[in-house]
Each structure stands twice: as C-alpha cells, then as structure tokens.
Amino acid sequence: MNPLPADLLLLSIAAPLAAALAIALGLPRKPALAAAAAGFAAPALAAVWCWLAFSGAPLSDGYAFRSAYDVGLGHIGIRLALGLNGVAMPLFALAGITGLAAGLYALQSGAERLRLYLMLLLVMQGGLMGVFASVDIFFFYFFHELALIPTFIMVGVWGGRGRNYAAMKMTIYLTLGAMLSLAGIIALYQGSGAQTFDLVSLRAAIAAQPLPELAQKNIFALLMFGFGVLVSLWPLHTWAPSGYAAAPTSAAMLHAGVLKKFGLYGLLQLAFPLLPAGAENWAGVLAWLALANVLVIGMVTLAQSDLRRMLGYSSVMHMGYAFLGLAAGGAPGAGAAVMLMVGHGFSVALLFLLASCIQKRTRTPDMAGMGGLVKDAPVLAAFFTAATLAGLGLPGFANFWGELGVFVAVWGAPALGPGFAAAAVAGIIISAIYGLRSVARVFFGPRTATFGEIAEAQPPRDLRRGEKIPALILLAALLLIGFWPKSISTAIDAGLSSAAGAATSAAIDRNRLRSAAIDRGTAADAGGAGPEERRDAASTLAAAGTAAAAAK
What we know:
Blueprint: H1 8-24, H2 29-53, E1 64-69, E2 80-84, H3 88-107, H4 114-133, H5 137-158, H6 163-192, H7 199-208, H8 213-231, H9 239-246, H10 249-259, H11 261-274, H12 276-302, H13 307-328, H14 330-362, H15 378-392, H16 398-412, H17 417-443, H18 449-457, H19 465-483, H20 486-496, H21 499-527, H22 531-551
Antiparallel strand pairs: 1-2
Helix pairs in contact: 1-2, 1-4, 2-3, 2-4, 3-4, 3-10, 3-14, 3-19, 4-5, 4-10, 5-6, 6-8, 6-9, 8-11, 8-12, 9-13, 10-14, 11-14, 11-21, 12-13, 12-17, 12-21, 13-14, 13-16, 13-17, 14-15, 14-16, 14-19, 14-20, 15-17, 16-17, 16-19, 21-22
C-alpha cells in the first residue's frame, strides 16, 4: 500500500519534464519562468516529504512508496517501477534539494536564450529524480542518459573558456563509461535468468541461482570501470576538471553535486550486492585506484590557480573517499560512502555556485588576480569559507560523518588496514592546504593591481537575494545533516541491512574469515603447531565456507 496522498515519486519526475515540454512548445517568457520555477520546486517538495515520511512508511521488499506503471514494454519485462530504499532516499533528497538551488540560481542568471537553458536544465532535473526513484534497472539507466545529454549541450553552448574542448571530452569519456556500464547491466540481466528488469526480481533470481564466479568477476569489472568513468575514478578522470571549469553554473551544480553519484549508486545497488565474488576479486584494485584519486589528484589540485578548475579537481579527489568506503566493504563502509555522497553533493554544488558569484565580481577565474574581496562582500566570504570547511569534513557539516566513517571502515578492513587509512587521512591535510589557501587568496590580503582597477571602476557588491537563497538552501542541508546525522543514517543502515546489504556484508565476512584462516594456517605451519591449532584453522576455513554460502 502506498501511503502517499498522490504519487509524489512520479510527480517529481513528471513535473520538471512537463515544464520543459511547455517551454519547448513556445510558452511566453513570464509563464515560462513561472513554469520553470514550479518544475524545480515540485521535486524538491516531493523529496523533502519523502525524507520526512520515510521512517514511518511501510516497506515492500525493502522499498517504500512502491508504484508501477505499464509503459507498453511489459512483454520484454520492462515497466516503470518506482520506490525508495534506505540508500536511494538520501540521494533522492539530494537531487530534489540541489535541483531547487540550481534552478533558482538559473532563473536569475540572465543567461542568453534563457528559456532554452531552463528547458534543458529541467530535463536534467527530471532525469536525476528518475535515477534514484527507479526500481527497474532499464529506467535506472534510461533516466541517467536523459539527464546526461542536456549536460553536453549546456557545456557546449553556455559554457565558459574552452567549452568546445570540454564538451567534446565529456561526451567521449561519459559515453564510453555509459556503454561499459550498459554492457555490464545487460550481462547481469542475461546471466540472472530473471524475466523482468525489476531490481527486486533480479535479486531474487540471483539469490536462487548465483552467477558463476568467472562471470561475476567479468561483469563486476565492466560495472566498476564503466561506473568509474562516470564518477571520475583515476586515471579515467580527466574529463571532470575541464568540464566543470567550463560548464555553466547550474549545470556544474547538478552534475558534480548529483549526477556524478550515479556510478557509485549503481555499484552499491547492483555490483557489490549481486556480484560478491567479483567484488572480492576487484576490491583491492578499486582501493588502490581510489587512493590515487585522493593523493595523486590531491597534489594536482594544489597546483591549480583557476578557482573553478581547482574545485573540479577537488571534486574528483573527494570521490576517492567514497570509492574507498565501498572497497573497504561491509555495511559500515557502504554506509559511510552514502553519507559522504550526500554531504559532498551539497557542498560541491554550493562551492560552484559561490565560485560563479566570485568570478562575476572579480571578472576573472584566476585566484592570482583576486584578493581583498572580504571588504566588499563579507557575506560571500562567510558562505565560501563555510562551504570550504564543509568540504574539508569539519565537524558540524554533513561531510564529516561520511569521511570519518570511511576512515574507520578502511582501518578495520583486513585487506587495507591502518596503513591504508593513514595514507587516506593525508588527503585531508592536502584538502586543508588548497582549501584554506583559496579562501586567503580570494578574500584576504591586498588586492592585486588588476582587481583594484576593476573594483575602483565598479565596486563589487555582496551577495544579492537571488544568490543568497540557493546558497542558504544548500548550507542549511549541510548543517542539518551535520548536526543530525540520524536524519539519513537510520534509513541508510536499514537499506544496507536488507537482502542486498546482507549479501555484501556476508561477502566481506567471508574475506575476513579466509584471511584469519590463512594467518592461522601460516602460523601453524611456521611454528610446527600440533593437531589442536590445525583444527582451529580448519574450523575457521569452514566458517568462511558458511559465510560464502550466506553471501550467495
């Protein structure tokens, strides 16, 4: 039974798409702006309502607010099935709230061909809501592509310096990633023997008849690298900094803040729970690539002078922590990754919004050409400082809980351990250096000669109301989750304790038991242990076999 007074999940997808269609059909300017505002507000309101109602909503197969619609493709097992589990709900809320902030900023942006710009942004918003509300994996992928295509157009048409190169590079990389992940999804569906693309049915089919180990390893590789490209996993990350540096502000907010989480979400919902043998085989590789995201990209970020490019590299770097949480395995690592995805989404969207405000006032993206802006824009300085501290994982902001959870999970993972955790923590020091240095270079110290001339000719203004409101929305979300993490962590824990989460945890338990057995066996052989010690090692291996069966 669906407790919603109306089907808000469907409304959250249809409202922005309907507004986009109305604008495309030639709606005059003022009605078009009103339709766009409604198209951004409806998903946000639906997302907040679902967030508040989720804890009391009845669950069906781990999902709340279930509904399904016939789209004429039932004969091939495809229907529009919607619902939210504990992992999807926080990301659905992230999409709705960030979309509202991006939409409000776009409405007063004064962009050329504003109606076309808003239409594409609305299509992107509808796709984002559909990604996290879909239970059918066909529509999960379809909505991602629906949100991705407008991104290429907006970067190429409304982007800044180097937009043509950035749009082409994004198109090539993200199309490659999408094709790899599609191949993995098709292989997973074909191998499962399921008669429908519904994720619940897919999980049931695989639980009844697990895929062969070799197939799991190969399909997991397709999903890991396909989704990895979409999330900018090192070394397949180079599309992201140039793309975000050139992208129009609202597009950068939605892509870096929300759409980029599609790949991690896909790994959480599909790859890790359904392919435990593949996850076990590739977890070590994923962990090393993720650590490269943190350390290698972190060092590259230190060298950046362009503010937006620095934020682009920073976004890539912090995705490494989310990948590390997944590689660490189990519910703690996966839960920390989801917490970090939500916190990062809000903070990076806020940073790109504020970077645009800074560039408008200084007339340059180069931090070397700024300085002393705090005198004219103290509110802007306060917002940017807060957003930077949130990105660093300062307590009181949502990012803190995700990063802390990742470090704890990595420390406790047998295949990673304290050394890996220490290396990951070094990334926080790198983040603090480039983050606080950017605050100092932009807002404090003497003005450069170039900026001094600009400021004298046209003194910079502080944030306008149309800029403050979207910034406040994002900052409020960061603080709310920072001071009340249970607002999403309870749902995440419940989602990861479901059948999918249990499979992942069992696979990790199997790894731990095997490691313990091997250690005991090695010690027994080295020390000439007697029958009792050898029986202990054998019993541990037997327990590992039991965990393997549970994972299947």
